[in-house]
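Fold sample X.
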Amino acid sequence: MITKLRAASAQWTLVVPVAAFVVLVLTWHKDLPGWVVGVVAVFLIGAVLAAVHHAEVIAHWTGEPFGSLVLAVAVTVIEVALIVTLMADGGDKSATLARDTVFAAVMITCNGIMGLSIIVAALKYRTAVFNAEGTGTALACIATLATLSMVLPTFTTSTPGPQFSTTQLGYAATASLVVYGLFVTTQTLRHRDYFLPVTPEGKIRRDEDDDHASPPTLRAAGVSLLLLAVALVSVVGLAKGVSPTIESAVDSAGLPQAVVGVVIAMMVLLPETIAALRSAVRNRVQTSLNLALGSALASIGLTIPAVAIASAWLSGPLVLGLGPSHMVLLTLTVVLGTLTVIPRRATLLQGALHLGVLAEFVVLAVNP
């Protein structure tokens, strides 16, 4: 019976990415009626779930922390492609789309995914245990890049409004790539142990005893890599297809345009959220935090350079500077994250505090 269920699951994850890609081809650049948007949304969710599965197969083959890095970069590629595509079509209306989406990604990952992972682990194991060196390093990089890329534009004077000049934007993009590159080197080469899961006693887990299957073969990992790429392309394209409906719904409801960025961030971060919660259930909170903070860092480190390059041919302005309320939330997130990380373990309370900050962010997005 178990063998049959596994076989059915494997077939499902093989078929769905291809089916989602076919739906993408059939609906590309077409005005979609409401019922078709509903069908597209179903295939979009299916492609996301399939992407999670194939990313976990690759992660199982590569091991930590490479597995978390694969999914973080893959999800960020979705985000970057979606942002640039929507900005190319949106003109002045999409001037703040990159800022809104990246900041929403930071809030969702550093408060939502992190908070939920801690709560899940704390409920099952009483406390969530992780490695402070690796988590603190990621948090420091996020704080630095978020400040350089999204806080400073509010205070610069070379260009009117919360925008960078061309020189300033070039530096921010370069710094983002350099810092992200240094972080990846630290995570995967020089200090890999800092990012490995730990036991309740604080010792590094070097075995894979809680992985209930043998590592996949090279061929299986290669197939998953190909299907992951197909699934991610499908997610980008299908998300773009439903984005006009999202924008129309936001406008009809009289909500701020920033809500569009929040919705986009939620869609593209769904694979990481599911993967992080699965790791938390298995008491691998460090893997959950690698996914959450690694995605936030990749979101800034890769999106800012991408939109900086794209701004050369985009007609509208590029507004990156945060408003006062968002700067307060960013500061609170960094302080709370630091206090959560220092003890190397967290309880239900810390997880709830992170979710409280995320809830406040959502409230302010809807009702600034």
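Fold sample Y, listed below.
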Amino acid sequence: MRLLSLAALLAMTLTGCATPPANQARQVAAPTPNVVLAEPEQAEFRYEIEIARINQMVSDDSLSDEELAFAYYRRGALYDALGLRTLSRMDFMRAIEMKPRLADAYNYLGIQYTELGEFDFAFEALDSALELDPEHPYALLNRGIAEYYDNRVKFAVNDFQQHLNNDPSDPYRVIWLFLAQYRESPNEALNALARNQQGIDEDDWANRIIELYLGELSEGEFLQQLTTQLRGDETLAERLCEAYFYLGKYSQRQQQWSKAANYFKLALTTNVHEFVEHRYADIELEQTRKQLQ
């Protein structure tokens, strides 16, 4: 699931040259009958070309501070998409120095600080994003995730619930609310999940995750459907990144810690750096390893 906003892009956003869809994943032989593997996502050539062009732009003394801010923001977003978090964070900080009211940059910083476990900085950044843009499409979700991983479960539930209220048809909003509610009251969380499922399109791929969590699909049945009904704009690696992350969360609930760890590792092998499931698979893997120890 993508959770980043690129709404405030550089006005003169650069167009990269056309490239073949090298990042399209294809199914390869799996080590077990039910596990599906995909070739990891490859860095898009057009991202690297655009970064090179922005590198030339930022050395242009004729650019205004606002133009420079958007250039740094855009380059930071591209670095982030390539998994270059430190370079990305440096650019977002530069962008904010030049344009302090850039909500999207604060949103990215909040995500990255959550990944690092620097929760005070994450909350400060995400609070700033919401203060600057109360209607920001993802900052509320990202703050809820930061609260979830910082064990501020009641706050996470409140943010996830508000985020879901803004779009009850989004299955990922339903799933994250369930994950937080399950920590407080498993039975109530399952009841709420069943109610919230009613607003989800039956044909939506993510509805299979909800069916798994509700016991309407077995783990084996879920695995058999991983490669079905891929959208035209979706790669197999993206599908598997989501599937294996939520399978890892499912295995945690069953206290199958070794299996959970393997699923999180599989999510990480997809290299889909932009997806929330890839971002937080590292945290989940570390927490799962502690249970194994």
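Sample Y note: The beta strands are 27-28, 37-38.
Also: The longest helix spans residues 236-253.
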